[in-house]
Design goal:
Length: about 280
């Protein structure tokens, strides 16, 4: 039975549970449940703090888990990224009082507050910058400068609202671009059942990332049209009752939908329809 760790709290918890449900797995209904077997799918879910997921996977007591790339790197665990999951996206950045610093080199001899001390110390070492200290805080890191325990912070930035509200601004290049990731142990053999979980999650990712596009096009324009919608392997081209026209169906990236519809219309395609993909296995 594959043991899967899932974040029980925080920004990653709800989207992780939603994604697993969409992939056909049972999920807990009560937030107090810590373990949930799903015998139909031969897996068992463990609801753990997102920061602890890499510790359990690294120790080998659960097989795989969902956590943030930033949390994985900060954990020092021997777990590795297996599949990026395209939610929980954020950047991890230095920030300080607006209008004061511009470059990571200026972190030298300054105090840095963060909830990710391993990640920050490693990054500064790689950059050859020696801070006065790395101060570990549990959260609300934005207050550390005003309250005098640090000169600079390094924290998760999503919309930037929290930084602005604290009168801070980012400086230097992002330390990391993070998102939720499925992790597994680096050296252990691939656990039985991970291939099925991976294919199911990839199916959910593809269903979100692509739409199905159908359109009609005069026969002599089929080649020009399919050049715009090559699909993943090859588009389906079917005859219409009117023999001078064909129907085409292809997968198209969701974020390209309108651009592709404009281009198809310009070459002469008509009755262009877009449908969401409910589920898929490539
Ligand atoms: N807006 C955000 N704020 C915090 N973490 C975010 C955000 N967006 C994505 N994340 C990711 O969530 C993970 C942090 O989860 P964690 O549960 O530790 O903190 P949290 O979401 O801030 O929850 P809380 O502080 O309420 O416990 C990291 O991987 C981080 O990159
Ligand atoms: O760029 P934004 O969209 O404002 O999001 C980023 C903020 O959200 C998180 O804080 P959270 O609310 O989890 O509080 P915490 O710092 O106490 O964890 C994170 O630590 C940042 O402070
Ligand atoms: Mg937080």
């Amino acid at each position: 039975m594959l043991r899967i760790a899932v974040p029980n709290k925080g920004s990653l918890s709800e989207p992780a549970v939603d994604m697993l449900r969409e992939a056909g797995y049972r999920q807990r209904r009560d937030a107090r449940e810590l373990v949930l077997p799903d015998p139909d799918n031969d897996v068992e879910f463990f609801y753990l703090r997102p920061r602890d997921v890499a510790v359990y996977v690294g120790a080998g007591t659960v097989d795989v888990g969902i956590t943030g790339r930033d949390l994985l790197l900060d954990s020092g665990s021997p777990a590795v990224e297996h599949l990026p999951l395209a939610f929980g996206r954020s950047t991890f950045r230095f920030a300080t009082t607006a209008g004061t610093l511009t470059d990571v080199a200026q972190v030298a001899r300054r105090r840095v507050a963060t909830s990710y001390p391993v990640l920050v110390a490693q990054h500064l070492r790689d950059q050859g910058v020696e801070p006065a200290a790395v101060v570990r805080l549990d959260g609300a890191v934005e207050s550390a400068i005003r309250l005098g325990v640090a000169d600079v912070i390094a924290d998760v930035v999503e919309t930037g609202t929290t930084l602005r509200a604290a009168g801070l601004e980012t400086f230097g290049e992002p330390i990391l671009r993070s998102e939720a990731v499925l992790i597994r142990h680096a050296s252990a053999e691939e656990p039985p059942g991970l291939d099925v979980l991976t294919r199911r999650l990839q199916g959910v990712l593809t269903a979100h990332e692509y739409v199905l596009m159908d359109y009609d096009v005069p026969l002599e324009l089929v080649e020009a049209a399919v050049a715009i919608t090559p699909g993943l392997e090859s588009p389906t081209v079917s005859p219409l009752h009117n023999r001078e026209w064909a129907a085409v169906r292809a997968m198209v990236r969701r974020d390209q939908t309108n651009r592709v519809m404009d281009a198809l219309y310009d070459v002469g395609a008509r009755a262009i329809l877009v449908t969401s993909i409910h589920a898929c296995r490539l």
